[in-house]
Amino acid sequence: MSAETSASYPVDEINRVRRLHERGRYDVETVHRLLDSAALCHVSYVIDGQPYCTPTLYWREGSRLYWHGSSASRMLRNLSEGEPACLTVTQLDSLVLARCGFNHSADYRAVMAFGHARQVENQEEKARALVMMVDRFFPGRTAQLRQSTEQEIKATAVISMKIERASAKIRSKGVGDDEEDYALPIYAERVPVNMVLGAAEPCKRLLPGVERPANLAPYREGRKLEDAVREAYCIAYAEVVGG
Questions:
Q1: Is the model's pLDDT at 213 over the cut of 50?
Q2: Of residues 154 and 19, which shows the higher confidence score?
C-alpha cells in the first residue's frame, strides 16, 4: 500500500465538524485506523431525490474504499458513474448516564468519508478486489477456497470510491455534567460497550480431519472484534505489499 502524500484530509464545509468541533479529527492516521478496525459500514446516496442508506461490508486500499453487492442492486446500479456518496462507520464505546437528560450521551469513534463512487469495470481490478473482499477479514483465505465461478463473479458488483474528504469524530469523556449538578444526589455512570468474539462454531457438516486453519488466529474467543479485524487487515495488506 502506497504511503499517503498528505498528513490530513482537506477540510471544507462538507466534512468540517461543526458541533463540538474539538472532537473532530482530519488526520489520515486517525481516519484510516478507524476505517480499518470496523467491519460494517453504511453508504448513503440519493436516487431521484430520495435518500438511501445501505449497510455493507467494505475495505480500504490507501485512500480508496471498496464495497460490494449484487449486480442487480439498486444501490450499485446507481453508484456506477461517479455519483456522490458518503460512507460512515461507528464504534460505540459506552453509554453515558448523567444527572440530567440533556447530558446523557455515548462515547464513540466515528468516520464520515466523502467521494464519488464508481463501479469497477476493469476485470483485473475487480478480480483482485473480490480476493481482498475476503482476505481483508481472513488473510490468505481465498487461496484455501473453491474458485468462484464466472456466474458468481458476474453476479457480484464492486464499487470503488476515492476518499476526497473525511472526518473522524471522537467522544471519550464519559460522564460530563454541568459543574453545579455534581452536588445533586443523582446516580450517574458510564457503561462500557465492547463487541467481543464468542467461541467459533464449526460447521456440523465438516468432513473428518478438516481443522480450523491457522490464518483464522486473529478471531479468538474473548477478543474485541475491532482488534481482530484490524490485525487481519494489517496481515492481509502486508502480504499484498510484500508479495
A1: yes
A2: 154
